[in-house]
Design brief:
nine-stranded antiparallel β-sheet, 255 residues, alpha+beta
Length: 255
Amino acid sequence: MTAPSWPRLAGWLATAGVDDGWASWRRVEDGVERSGTVVLREGLQLVATSDGQPADLLHPLLQRVDWSWPDYTRPAGAPEPCEHDGRPAWRVRLLPPPHKAGELELVVDEGLRTAVRAENAEAGLLVEVVDLHAGLPPDDVLAAVRAAHGGRDRLHALMSLVDDRPPPTPRWFPARSSYVPDDECVVVHLPQWAECSLSRAPLGGTPVTGQTEPPESVVRLDAHGWSWAVAGPSPMGEDDARRVVDAAATGRPPA
């Protein structure tokens, strides 16, 4: 194998990921070990635990991750060849930022080009996947994981979908989208429009803004079958707020 540089390895992590597959996973944190099964369908992670308790998504494993923004961005050395779960892989150690302790050791699968193990020994954290299969999960595996998920399945799928794979939109809008779980509102940030944010809720609902502006900086209005909230760092008139809403609803940039 020809050793990839860290920038090339980071490029793999940002573009590959596992769209469909299933694997066993384990996580050790502060001496407590947990394990279970993870199923991926079209890039969405459904995580089941052996103890029946909720679990965080296995970030950054098996996912597309843009390593230009995490805290650990500087390699401590060149990637080295290794083996993980019987498969060829690359190990790279990443230096911590000033406010964190311990290097992050990341293992990237050579064939799948996605992270399969991450460890910070000083912080007492390890998470890994083994027995990884690419392709459509068998029905019995998928059914078992969905049963373990219960009512959290739909919400986690929505949050993962919007955060990791936002739907196609015009390039000017939005800069970022996310679901606010408690309110089931969509929040989008529009840096091209005075750093404002726009959120919507079903007609008659109260959309959140996702920001901390005082109430007088938020314009609320009903249009296009939704209730909207537009917020910015400075007060915005209703006419300007409606232009932003119309632009979002019609898919055209603000005039």
